[in-house]
Amino acid sequence: xxxxxxxxxxxxxxxxxxxxxxxxxxxxxxxxxxxxxxxxxxxxxxxxxxxxxxxxxxxxxxxxxxxxxxxxxxxxxxxxxxxxxxxxxxxxxxxxxxxxxxxxxxxxxxxxxxxxxxxxxxxxxxxxxxxxxxxxxxxxxxxxxxxxxxxxxxxxxxxxxxxxxxxxxxxxxxxxxxxxxxxxxxxxxxxxxxxxxxxxxxxxxxxxxxxxxxxxxxxxxxxxxxxxxxxxxxxxxxxxxxxxxxxxxxxxxxxxxxxxxxxxxxxxxxxxxxxxxxxxxxxxxxxxxxxxxxxxxxxxxxxxxxxxxxxxxxxxxxxxxxxxxxxxxxxxxxxxxxx
Length: 339
Description:
Strand content: 5-15%
Low-confidence stretches: 1-5
Structural class: mainly alpha
Strand order of the largest sheet: 1-2-3
Order of helices and strands: EHEHHEHHHHHEHEHHHHH
Oligomer: single chain
Helix content: 40-55%
Radius of gyration: 22 Å
């Protein structure tokens, strides 16, 4: 479901699990939308370190390292900390509290039938699901609702999670009081992985990271899967099965029709096609590299930004939790100050 922004009152919430570097798939799927939305709307961007534990609980060192890495990716991509609030999930304990409350009226059956949960479990070879992994959509609902977000820029695979959040919000508001806001998803484009087998993913090793050098980009695109039926340059191509043609549709929209026609006729070879998309990807990544170099020289500024953003997010979370507890008749000793 793709929507248009209707109100200046909309609050945007989005984020990424801190399991390593962000890549072009993240950029196409939601990062570039965030850069645009931050200009007009109150925006919260979460470093989801708790949710990273759902698949990386055995490697906490990666999470610690990745918090700053992903924050640097955000800044490099054009997120402005003066406009968007970037915060660390685990440092806002009210999110965990909301997760517990929501889990009381979400059925295990609904979680097991979530298509995204099922697909990722199968992809990772999980026969027996951990509690945190199965409950990921409930945790995500708490992320979205703590700041009363009404818009969530995300990839198509997140649609089932957002629908779960909408159900949780409706159920809570019916049971207790109309405190929470029902969000909508702003769907980004999907970028296939270089292997052509699935979406671009860190864990599958088929991604171009946002900090990739020009040489790395060139080498990775040269190895990318194309139409297996094309042996010679003059062989008629089938653009619909070619990963690189999909990249043309995203990064060279105006020229993609011509590429399609020439591919079908066999008047352009895969090498030339890849060279054109390499240039287009470089146009995207070069300003990202320039911003990255500036921010890399100021690591303390990144830490200060994260602490300030987290403090701001927690202030909002406290207010929401007070309203939630009041609605649930659990605000036994109302807190009149932040202490």
